[in-house]
Specification:
single chain, 165 residues, flat, mainly alpha
Length: 165
């Protein structure tokens, strides 16, 4: 029964992967980060149907005007910014303490290797956060979602196939 439950998440990922190309990019992302007014209005129409979206559009334009002088930072620039060191160190401490508390340890590991495995998982999670944030900064959310759903569906198909053999 557990393999059916496992394959259910793969089915959900596959359905999301099939329908994701038909959804537009986020209107605030298109307007505020890409500067695409026509794309923003087109996305609003596609998401919300026909209507008058001038109030929402004007609010986004005001937000754009307020943030015009501020530079949009990517992940590496944020990591180099000294003013966010307290928040980053708190997040890192929480992430590492969660990994080192033993919740992610399994019975099949030797006790001497559990801290190293936990630390490795924490470091890989931190690297994936930085990598995924960079992808979002460079390509937008859609590419990351497509890749994630495709990878999740592929891995679960391979896992189910290997369990059936």
């Amino acid at each position: 029964m557990w393999n059916v439950l496992l394959s259910f998440s793969g089915l959900v990922a596959l359905i999301q992967l099939l329908f994701l190309p038909f959804f537009p990019e986020s209107p605030p992302y298109l307007l505020l980060q890409k500067g695409d007014k026509a794309g923003c209005l087109k996305a609003m129409k596609q998401l919300w149907g026909e209507g008058n979206y001038h109030i929402e559009f004007d609010d986004m334009m005001k937000e754009k005007a307020v943030t015009k002088g501020t530079k949009i930072m990517n992940v590496l620039e944020v990591l180099k910014e000294p003013s966010v060191y307290p928040q980053l160190s708190t997040m890192l401490l929480l992430l590492l303490s969660l990994q080192l508390c033993g919740l992610s340890a399994t019975a099949s590991l030797q006790e001497s290797t559990i801290p190293y495995v936990s630390l490795g998982v924490a470091i890989s999670e931190l690297m994936s956060i930085i990598f995924c944030s960079s992808i979002i900064d460079h390509f937008g959310c859609r590419i990351l979602l497509w890749g994630g759903y495709l990878l999740m569906a592929l891995i679960l198909v391979l896992l189910e196939t290997s369990l059936l053999l």
